[in-house]
Amino acid sequence: MLALCEATPTAQHQPSPEDLLRTGAHLGTLGFSLLDSLRWLQQFQLASGSASTTSRRALRCLALRHACALAIALLHASKHPGLAVKLRRAREWAVSTLQQMLRMPAQALLVPEAKNEGGCGARSRFCKQERELLLACTKESCQLVHAMHFGSVARTHDAFAGLLGCFVSTVDILAIWRKAHRQIK
After folding, report:
1. Which of 73, 144, 161, 175 is least surrounded by CB atoms within 10 angstroms?
2. How confident is the model at residue 114 (pLDDT cuts 50, 70, 90)?
3. Dihedrals φ, ψ of 133, to 5°?
């Protein structure tokens, strides 16, 4: 509730689109928490109603939260200079690589020499801040599809939704592991 109070614009402050999206994300989280608690009470017959229906409603609130968080991440990414150009180059590279793989699979397995592009390092086409923005957008997109699938807003294959959940979990675990690894050194 405190995060919602902090995100709510005051009368003196004109709300920005990011403020409104943060408020929507907090409301989605609040709705999810309340409905998930109600679902637990229904599961133990302490509250009336269907636990499965309440669960789907809770996941729809979670999907709202992820949609708002994705919009915030995209808003931040759109403010980053040159990211759109790099994304277009990366997409062109991916398309040409896939086409080459289809034509000459043996040649496609060879690793090309790395090129240094403007201080972003030889290993990557994107600098650290750009990678973090892209990862945030990708994670929120995956979580949005995952929540929409299990909230019965959009139907995908269960295996696909599970794969998206595994991807997000792996990314989160790797971040925690790297942080712990740095603290040990």
Report:
1. 175
2. very low
3. -65, -45
Are 28 and 68 a contacting pair, CB within 8 Å? yes
Contact 144, 60 (CB under 8 A): no
- Cα separation of 114 and 108, whole Å? 15
The owner of tokens 């294959």 is 157
Q: Can you tell me which residue has the tokens 């109070």?
A: 5
- The model's pLDDT over 42-66, given as tens digits with 9 standing for 90+, comes to 999 999 999 999 999 999 999 999 9
User: How many other C-beta atoms lie within 10 A of the C-beta of residue 68?
Assistant: 23
Give 104's DSSP letter: -
Residues 141 and 167 sit within 8 Å (Cβ to Cβ): no
CB atoms < 10 A from the CB of 69, how many? 23
